[in-house]
Request: fold
Amino acid sequence: MKSFDTHAVTPDNAPEKSRQTISSALQALMKTQAMRETLSILIPEVVQLWAGDNRLKNKIAGPIGKSIQKGLRTDNTRKNSHAPHVRRVMQDIITSLMSALESAAQAFEALSPEEKEKQVKALFAQCGTGQAGRILTRVMRALHDLHGQNPTALADAMTPVVQKWIEKTDFGALRDVADTIEPEIRALAIGINDTLWRYPSKLVLSLSFLPDLVNLAVIGLGETVGRFNRAAPDLVADILLSMVRSLDGKTLGMALNELTELVRKVHTGSALIGEAGAPRLQEDLRQMVAAILEHLDSRAYWRARVAFAEDKEVFRRSLVEVLADHPEFFTGRIKTYAARQNPDWRARRHGLEALEAMPDDDMAAALEEGLSDLDLQELGEVVNLSGVLANRLMALKPELLGRLAGQVVASLDLAEIETALHDILHVAGPPLRPVGRAILPEILSEICRTLEPAEDEYEPRMAEVRQQLRSLLMGEAVMS
Reply:
């Protein structure tokens, strides 16, 4: 029975059918040995015409032409196996490209400085014709039009591809590679360092590029900021503040909500998967710190900390010595102290005003919830342990605190301190006296109530203190 082609040629699909026919014919023609032999002769000639008399182009064109010619010509060893042929052609192309690049580099190196400059200018002139910019502009315009028709057109096209990639990728194999790649990285690092340290001059030169890169970054940053500084203040403020206004506060708030919820869930989950009273996070951190300290040289660590502190002292001393030659920096710090401190005080005042303006019920509920959960027992234990450590120190080294106190007093100029305190209180005392008269009565009254007799374990000592105070006051009364 005769079969009929369901894709009949109609006026609507005639161009498409024609293109398919031509494409099929060209593919069949390219498979013929005669056409391949013809192209193997023709294409190298075209490449040679492109190179012309340019020495660099000739260096590149030679290997590429030979690679194309070799890839197009068939031999009896290929037979019907297409895949090995493709592999050989790709290997030949890559080899030829590398040879072409090496030949071009050699030719460029042999040129005179004038010729090198001409070649560089010609190369960048060809790259800087603006064609790439025009192509990018057209692509962006096309994407803009596409988004006007379908805002998610790219996502619709890319999502199936990404889904297929995820579906077909064996992430277990990736995980296995990640688990076993550490020896590779370590071996590579060791090999690179072994090579560099065999040539110390090259190592030094390679490291010398780092300051240059930093300098280039600083130059670029300085030039960019300098352009802003040379613009009008309103223009600069409008540009920068427009960037701030462009930020989506709603999106940022939602992202912050998700982050805070993540932290809460990690905290809760750590308590759930851990032992009673010991969250899993605590145990993991303990194991990590234990592993670090097990391999950490404590002596070297603390020597480094001491060296860092001494180096910081050297830096500060050097900075002060340089600033001493420019006293305007010191005086400027003093002059601007009020201007730098006042905004902080004003911000604190605004915060306290906002708290003061809160309704009484809200304030009371907040204080009760915030303060009632304070673990004052832990605070008491901190005070107790501090007392235990102080007593232990006094038992082990009773002379230590006395020696330290003596060294401090010996270094003080008591006459200058006395004069300074006298002058300060003489000037500031009268204005501050109302404050003292307002608060001292309550303080002294509470001290007197504390000194009153009471039936507790502290009464014997308090009786001695009262007697000492009585003797002091009576002695002064007798002397007066």
Notes: Residues 1-15, 75-81 have pLDDT under 50 and may be disordered. Residues 170-240 form one domain. The CA atoms of residues 455 and 462 lie 11 Å apart.
